[in-house]
């Protein structure tokens, strides 16, 4: 069930993807209209109830094609205020519906074939005209399947893949009609029932898988363990990342979104921490195929320190305290900048002073000792360092 879309990230808003998907679906619509009309008319004329039933089945495919066109029209829209993550989940929901319909088709074919096997009835009455129509329908449906599945694999569309397998189920249904007519002509009418049960199981299995994967996506199931491990390795190899945690992933219609916390050195500037986060985001989008968006949270400590860090005062309160502590230090009037470092459950203070103070007043060690002594009673404050410029 894999396709060549794994080589690159999928953009559901890509206009090329939308046009190709819409084109293949309209080809399906027109083909189904022609085929259903031919099957029903020739089936009535040729006295083939099976061909008429297959024509009604083909006609019902227009409903699924309509669902696909609806999903394509809405899922390709850009994100907006009400849908900040885009409209890709519409495609996912339609994929689940199509998967359920495939499952129903498989069960229906198996039930019909099993009933006729049990009752030892022929599938259809022999008719050369209906046989040729059934063969043509089989070829057309198989062609639709191959055309649609190629487009689905190229653009990574689970919805088109589901519709492609619906075409394949139609081809199998037409094959059963062909086998029934041919088998009846050869005297082995029961063979179509045996084949029908086998292929119905395959159809039901495909439908179940498609619906199950779509359901998992709708409830935000994360990426596979192998993909998550690849994401972890990629992040760990970015320069400046000390550790990572709280990695979360989810899929939206062929795309993958990632949320992650990374830990960097607490002494880095805000701009450098941001640059590391942007590097993580860019590398994941470039190297991990389905990833199209990444939210990176910058941490400077492990989660174990979160509770202590949350209780630490913010800058305005710290500055007010320092102003009171340093009131008796004349050199404090010359402070250019105070940098706060929240680390290890404390606030480390870095004070920037002009170099000229050292010549005018005291030496660096004496000045540093006075600033430290003034702030020492505060349990929230860790180290106090002076930087001269």
Task: Summarize the model shown.
The chain is α/β, with parallel strands linked by helices. It has helices at about 15-45, 50-75, 90-120, 130-155, 160-185, 190-220, 225-235, 270-285, 305-310, 315-325, 355-360, 365-375, and strands at about 245-250, 255-265, 290-300, 335-345, 345-355, 380-389. The protein has 12 helices and 6 strands.
Annotation keywords:
alpha/beta, 12 helices, 3 domains, three-stranded mixed sheet, Alpha-lytic protease prodomain-like, Alpha-Beta Plaits, 6 strands, 389 residues
Summarize the helices and strands and which ones pair or pack.
Elements: H1 15-45, H2 49-75, H3 88-119, H4 128-155, H5 158-186, H6 191-218, H7 225-236, E1 243-252, E2 255-263, H8 270-287, E3 291-299, H9 306-310, H10 315-325, E4 337-343, E5 346-353, H11 356-360, H12 364-375, E6 381-388
Helix pairs in contact: 1-2, 1-4, 2-3, 2-5, 3-5, 3-6, 4-5, 5-6
């Amino acid at each position: 069930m894999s396709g060549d879309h794994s080589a690159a990230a999928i953009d559901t808003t890509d206009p090329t993807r939308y046009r190709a998907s819409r084109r293949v679906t309209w080809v399906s619509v027109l083909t189904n209209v022609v085929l259903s009309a031919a099957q029903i008319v020739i089936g009535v004329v040729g006295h083939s109830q099976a061909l008429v039933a297959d024509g009604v089945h083909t006609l019902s495919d227009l409903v699924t094609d309509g669902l696909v066109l609806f999903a394509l029209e809405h899922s390709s829209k850009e994100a907006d205020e009400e849908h900040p993550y885009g409209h890709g989940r519409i495609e996912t929901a339609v994929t689940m519906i199509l998967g359920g319909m495939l499952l129903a088709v498989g069960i229906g074919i198996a039930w019909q074939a099993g009933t006729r096997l049990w009752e030892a009835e022929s599938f259809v009455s022999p008719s050369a005209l209906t046989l040729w129509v059934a063969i043509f329908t089989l070829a057309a449906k198989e062609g639709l399947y191959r055309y649609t599945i190629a487009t689905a694999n190229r653009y990574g569309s689970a919805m088109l893949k589901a519709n492609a397998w619906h075409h394949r189920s139609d081809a199998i249904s037409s094959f059963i009609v062909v086998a029934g007519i041919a088998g009846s002509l050869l005297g082995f009418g029961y063979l179509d029932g045996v084949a029908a049960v086998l292929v119905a199981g395959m159809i039901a299995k495909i439908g179940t898988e498609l619906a199950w994967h779509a359901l998992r996506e709708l409830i935000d199931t994360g990426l596979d363990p192998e993909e998550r491990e690849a994401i972890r390795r990629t992040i760990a190899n970015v320069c400046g990342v000390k550790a990572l945690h709280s990695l979360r992933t989810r899929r939206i219609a062929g795309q993958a979104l990632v949320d992650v916390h990374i830990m960097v050195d607490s002494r880095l500037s805000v701009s450098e921490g941001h640059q590391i986060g942007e590097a993580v985001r860019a590398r994941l989008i470039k190297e991990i195929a389905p990833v199209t968006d990444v939210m990176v949270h910058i941490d400077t400590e492990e989660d174990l320190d979160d509770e202590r860090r949350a209780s630490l005062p913010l800058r305005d309160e710290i500055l007010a305290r320092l102003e009171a502590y340093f009131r008796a230090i004349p050199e404090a009037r010359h402070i250019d900048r105070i940098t706060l470092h929240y680390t290890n459950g404390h606030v480390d203070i870095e004070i920037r002073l002009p170099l000229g103070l050292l010549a005018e007043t005291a030496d660096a060690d004496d000045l540093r000792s006075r600033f430290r002594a003034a702030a020492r009673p505060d349990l929230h404050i860790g180290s106090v360092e002076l930087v001269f410029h």
